[in-house]
Amino acid sequence: MAVGNLDAWDHHLTRKFDGWARATVTDDGRKVTFVRNATHVRAKLVWTSADGFSDAVFTYPK
Fold first, then answer.
1. Residue 7: pLDDT above 90?
2. Closest Cα partner for 9 from 37, 34, 44, 42?
3. Positive or negative, the Cα torsion across 11, 13, 18, 21?
4. Which residues pair with 47 in a beta bridge?
5. 1, 51 in Cβ contact below 8 A?
6. Quick check: 48 and 62 in contact, CB under 8 A?
7. Which of 33, 27, 34, 31 is nearest to 48 (CA)?
8. What is the DSSP string of the chain?
9. What is the per-residue pLDDT for 43?
10. 2: nearest Cα among 31, 24, 41, 34
11. Is 27 exposed, middle or buried (0-12, 13-18, 19+ CB in 10 A)?
12. What is the pLDDT of residues 14-59, one digit of tens each?
């Protein structure tokens, strides 16, 4: 579960890290979806104000 004031999100870039490529935030800020697309896998991680972070979901191409 998330704690504290989450009105603003800080981000810190890490050199040579190709982690989460983008994040989509709903207009009300209550849900954030992080996505990472790689050649062999697509990963998705969701944060909601009600439940905090979900488990990451990995999808592999056929």
1. no
2. 34
3. positive
4. 32, 53
5. yes
6. no
7. 31
8. ---S--SS------TT-----EEEE-TTSSEEEEEEE-SS-EEEEEEETTTEE---EEE---
9. 87
10. 31
11. exposed
12. 665 556 777 899 999 899 998 888 778 888 999 999 998 888 899 9
Given a cut of 60, whether residue 2 has pLDDT beyond it is no
CB 2 within 8 A of CB 9: no
- Gap between the Cα atoms of 33 and 48, Å rounded: 9
Q: For residue 33, what pLDDT is reported?
A: 93
Structure tokens at 15: 């050199």
pTM: 0.64
- The one-letter amino acid at 57: V
